Amino acid sequence: MNTRRVRIMTMTAFSPRSRTRRAVLATAAGAVLAMPAACELTDAQAPEDGGAAAARPPDGNGAAGGGAGAEHGSGARGRPGVPMLTVAATGDFLLHDVLVQQAAEDRRSQGRRGYDLMPMLAGIKPVIGAADLGICHVETPLGRREGPFSGYPAFNSPPQIVDAVAGLGYDTCSTASNHTVDQGEPGVRRTLAALDAAGVRHAGSARTAEEARRINLLDVKGVKVAHLSYTQDTNGIPPPAPWSVNAGLSAPRILADAARAKAAGARLVVLSLHWGEEYRHEPTAAQRALARTLLASEDVDLIVGCHVHVVQPFERINGKWVAYGMGNQVANPSANDAATHEGVIARFTFTRGPSGWTAAPAFTPTVVVPGPPIRLHALGPGSDHQAAIARTSGYVRSLGANVPLAPDANPSTVR
Ligand SMILES: [Zn+2]
Fold first, then answer.
1. For residue range 346-367, what is the model confidence (pLDDT) as tens digits?
2. Could you write out the DSSP letters of every residue in 249-278?
3. Are strands 342-353 and 356-369 parallel, antiparallel or unpaired?
4. Residue 177 CA, ligand 1 centroid: distance in Å
5. Which residues are in the CB-under-5-Å shell of ion ligand 1?
6. Which of 14, 191, 204, 331 is a plausible cystine mate for 176, CB 3.0–4.6 Å?
7. Spacing, Cα 123 to ligand 1 middle (Å)
8. Cβ atoms within 10 Å of 205's Cβ, excluding its own
9. Which residues are in the Capsule synthesis protein CapA domain (predicted)?
10. Distance 284 CA to ligand 1 centre (A)
């Protein structure tokens, strides 16, 4: 079910795109809106299917949103009239050489030159496309379409990844990582230009001081959602400008930004954090302490994490959720430990009740299979990758949260 109706807004003028799935509108920053109290949720609460939809609340700014009218979800398990939206977030794209070669091969098989990453990643499209808000992470700077490309330690990745990001149904990507400034200011500029050209919003890096101050505010089924992004470090590379990347996980700074987002009208604030110790399934003490500090604030509603390349647990804190690490979305399936080929799509269903928003978590395990061809699969309950599902489930639940596997968005395509 692809019933998403995402309307994207910006606080400055923004040209509408002609994509049928989304409509874009420009709006001024809204008035300060009351923030509901911290979410309450029982761990046993079942997630809603990503395609479900409920009545859309009044828009509040009077702008028409290209068919974004109220939806009464067929198949929705939410109560009619109860605002509900689904968020799906994923981990790192690590575009090692073999993946770039596969993208060239897939393009060649269409009789064309260049790179096409969509065939490799299409297995997760039913899950991302079914979510009302899809959040990806672009860990590495993007190069020119014709290359040259490079891998670790100074990444320069094919910008064609953004074509796939848009095609998979992502709406916004975090770009703050330890590799953001691997290619200096030109890398930051190319990455954000590629996302802009594809109509995908972004947070975490910037070309100007003004862009860095701007809150990445999206309209999801009539609900304003802010997506912000920060990284713990830049591998010791000094950012070309103070605004190039949101580097350093300063709780006061992040909370100040989250408060600004709420003041700009965001009902929900989602943080993408690039943090943790690589290849370690357990969150560090620093991750756990920061999650506690941030989720203690009513200005932060959800944290999704990247960087460690393996799956880390979900934890419920102050009635809200953190997914510490979602693993790699895609990485070389024949290098490193198998755990780096396994990831999760973290899925959260937000429902607004009388006492505010509540979030129900779920996850879809993913695995990169070496093929050939190399392909990313989303794993459903009937999958033949049961060992991967068991491992991933163990990591997700390792802090005791009984997070369920998400129902298949589309059982015929989820493997
Ligand atoms: Zn990283």
1. 999 999 988 889 999 999 999 9
2. --HHHHHHHHHHHHHTT-SEEEEEEE-S-T
3. antiparallel
4. 5
5. 177-178, 307
6. 204
7. 24
8. 28
9. 86-333
10. 15
The CA 235 to ligand 1 mean position distance, Å, reads 9
- Class assignment of domain 84-396? alpha beta
Ligand 1 center from residue 272 Cα (angstroms) = 12
Continuous segment of H or E residues that includes residue 26: strand 22-26
**Beta-strand pair 320-323/302-306:** parallel
Short-list 170, 167, 202, 172, CA closest to 188? 202
**pLDDT, tens digit, for every residue of 60-69?**
222 222 222 2
| Contact (CB, 8 A) for 103 and 110 | no
User: How many Å apart are CA 157 and CA 97, to the nearest integer?
Assistant: 9
Which pLDDT belongs to residue 81? Answer: 67
Compute, in angstroms, the gap from residue 400 CA to the centroid of ligand 1.
26
- 127 C-alpha to center of ligand 1: Å? 24
Strand intervals (E) in 285-372: 302-306, 314-317, 320-323, 328-330, 342-353, 356-369
Three-state secondary structure call for residue 319: coil
Q: What is the pLDDT of residues 44-101, one digit of tens each?
A: 233 332 333 332 222 222 222 222 222 222 233 456 666 899 999 999 988 888 899 9
Residue 335 CA, ligand 1 centroid: distance in Å: 17
Count CA atoms within 13 Å of residue 20 on its CB side. Answer: 2
Interval between CA 232 and ligand 1 midpoint (Å): 9
CA of 181 to the centre of ligand 1 (A): 12
Please tell me the distance between residue 91's alpha carbon and the centre of ligand 1 in angstroms.
10
Q: If we measure between CA atoms, which residue out of 160, 163, 154, 214 comes closest to residue 187?
A: 154
Ligand 1 centroid to Cα of residue 214, in Å, is: 24
Q: Which helix (H) or strand (E) holds 137?
A: strand 133-137
CA of 343 to the centre of ligand 1 (A): 14
